[in-house]
Amino acid sequence: MTAGAADKRQQRVVDPSGGANQSRVRAYNERLVLSLVRRHGALPKSQIARRSGLSAQTVTVIMRSLEADGLLLRGEPQRGRVGQPSIPMSLDPEGAFSIGLKIGRRSAELVLIDFTGSLRASLRRVYSYPTPDEILRFAVAGITKLCKTLGSRKTPRVAGVGISMPFELWSWAEKFDVPTEEMLAWKHLAFGEELASQCGLPVYVLNDATSACGAELAFGRGSQMSDFVYFFVGTFVGGGIVINNALFSGRSGNAGALGTMPVPDADGNASQLIDHSSVYGLEQMIIAKGKDPSPLWEKPDDWSIFSEELDEWSGTAAGKLAWAIVASCTVIDFSAAIIDGAFSDDLREQLVRRTSAALDAFDLQGIRRPQILPGTIGRGARAVGGAGQPLLARYLLDQNVLFKT
Questions:
Q1: What's the rounded mean pLDDT across residues 326-339?
Q2: What is the phi/psi pair of residue 261, to 5°?
């Protein structure tokens, strides 16, 4: 089958709402099968039938169709003690692609991922503060460049662009001492719609920390957990909440805004987590000591020149993260707290260790201590989470349908 023919057949999966009832049911079932394989890994027909509740005959027809469309990949036959060998089917990495755009307060990043969530290519831009025009130019040119890496045969399989950005991006202009009028341009621009009109792809917009949490859920250790509270430490700290295997975004899409969690300051007065556990605080500490903080943004994987400041900052940040974790667990009985951030793996591990140690100092009577775990996606979690949105919208189902074991 040609790539063009396969792409046309994929439209059944793309739009489960159109056509006759039979077509809608088939599209739903195809998405269900793809979602089960994505969550559980390579599965044979018998396992898919058991987990989905579909008949073996229906599953056989669907799997053959998805394999022909280039969305499923046939594995090596697995021989058991009796009967025919089972053949596990997995997502074909080349079956679909997606682009994520992270818009941050000091940098923007574009990533291209495949159907399994593996990173294929990335681009990055560092700035003093983001303006819509600059980000739009970077995004449009970058999307074109990333698509060219796929070649003309695979480009039609790009599902869309997912944007991860802070809500009310304009609201922190005064804190960073940047031109208020330039930042207010974000308030009056439907950036997602503008990007869609210029790049010709579907565009989805999500809060940046929620998006990072979604990346951990879909592509990281979170896929093996039914619930967890998630912290992403960037310029500012944010978070996300997973309940019953699904990302909980709340009525306005801003659930898990953990940066505003009340914590005590050094004098015991009320403050917010964002004031103590953000890279912005580390930057201010470095500036106060007369040093240039620019390597924080230009070399995010190597902050070794700030070893003294990092030791002081991580101790404070970990202590306040422990406060926030305890507070979170008094509301929801989370089994784990996952910590990730826009820095090196070594610093992430250090922050996790110190947070876990700080948690041991709390009186946890009445609540069960959660595991404190490092995230697995790392600095690019916000962009990868954004890229996951078009794949979910086009090929997959919400996690809530996947509970059948």
A1: 96
A2: -60, 125
Q: Which residues pair with 237 in a beta bridge?
A: 233
pLDDT tens per residue, range 126-149? 998 899 999 999 999 999 999 999
Query: Would you mind telling me the total number of residues written for the chain in this entry?
Result: 405
**Coil, helix or strand at residue 317:** helix
Q: Range with the lowest mean pLDDT among 33-37, 75-79, 101-105, 370-374?
A: 75-79
Give tens-digit pLDDT for 303-329.
Answer: 999 999 999 999 999 999 999 999 999
Q: How far apart are CA 352 and CA 125, in angstroms?
A: 28
Q: Where in the chain is the domain with CATH 3.30.420.40?
A: 96-211+384-394, 221-376
Cβ atoms 105, 125 nearer than 8 A: no
Contacts of 29 (CB under 8 A, 6+ apart): 52, 54, 58, 62
Element (H, E) at 8: helix 3-9
Domain spanning 3-94: CATH 1.20.970.10? no
Give CATH superfamily name and number for 221-376. Answer: ATPase, nucleotide binding domain (3.30.420.40)
Q: Give the model confidence (pLDDT) of 23-62 as tens digits.
A: 888 899 999 999 999 988 899 999 999 999 999 999 999 9
Whether the CB-CB separation of 24 and 16 falls below 8 Å is answered with yes
Please, is 76 exposed, middle or buried when counting C-beta atoms within 10 Å of its C-beta (0-12, 13-18, 19+)? exposed
- Measured between alpha carbons, how far is 166 from 246 in angstroms, rounded to an integer? 21
CATH superfamily entry for domain 96-211+384-394:
ATPase, nucleotide binding domain (3.30.420.40)
Residue 102, classified by CB atoms within 10 Å of its CB into exposed (0-12), middle (13-18) or buried (19+), is buried
